[in-house]
Amino acid sequence: MTERIARFNELTPSTLPFVEGRIEGHKERKNFSIVGPGVAEDSQQSVKISKPHGYNLGAVSANPKNGSGLHSHTTAEVFLIYSGNWRFYWGADGANEIILGKGDIISMPTNMFRGFENAGDEEGLIFVVLGNDDPGIITWVPNVLIKAKETGLALLDDNSLIDLKENEIPPNRKLLEPITNKTLQKFDNYRIDEIEKFICRFKNQTNHEINLNNGIKLIQIIGSSFSNKNYNAIIDHDTGFNLSILKGKQGLIEDLVFDKPTILFSQKGNWKVKIEENEFNINSKDTFSLPLNTKVSVSIDNNEDCFVCFIIFIP
To answer: Model-level pTM greater than 0.90?
Structure first.
């Protein structure tokens, strides 16, 4: 069972995960691949749990005024803020923006350029869920690739990262050209009020709590089911996975059974997970990949409200 656990303090991050990794405002960050490789362009990115789950879980830590440049995905991208305040901006010019804080969640629409930046005054951490086993490649706005090349980093036409200061372009490859303005116009944009429906703020989650008894409450963020029962989601967005949060101080929920790939990770608190005769402690930021079709019990004993997230594949 231990191979199913990803202890956050044992993860190996990439400090140059993407092509914009040397650009000012993007270089003081770390990228973690917890479940699946994600979309990192660093071929040496360490992946803790490589078994396919139908989605990917990663994390990004960044210093103030650092984060990601404008990019787009072809699959879902859901951000869960663990610590700090973060500025999310979107559109080809990044003109629209919103500040979100600890515990807030945003599910970004596909086919839309987005970026994020630590808007606080100390290092912050966010978790990121990407849809599908293979979440595809990143499409960058042209300016990112242009500035990156000035730092010596570029993408080849197979979307692999190359350091032009240390390597020659392989004879059978060429550099990836920035997309044209015509292609740029094909990407979507949203007004700020249109993005609101993709956001769940932490302060509003109490309005959606469902009492599961024994000191445990459910907050259904994305998707319509948890443990074979249907619930209304706060964010109505087809991502290919369910995102559910259990909340409790002293509580226990028993006999959870999942027939689709499921992971849990602790947002706050030391949660005990019992599977048959085995018991594990899942601390804050730790992740556990649950075995299928097996009864699972989850408990918490704390003086404060604690939170554990479940991500469940939807075929």
So the answer is: yes
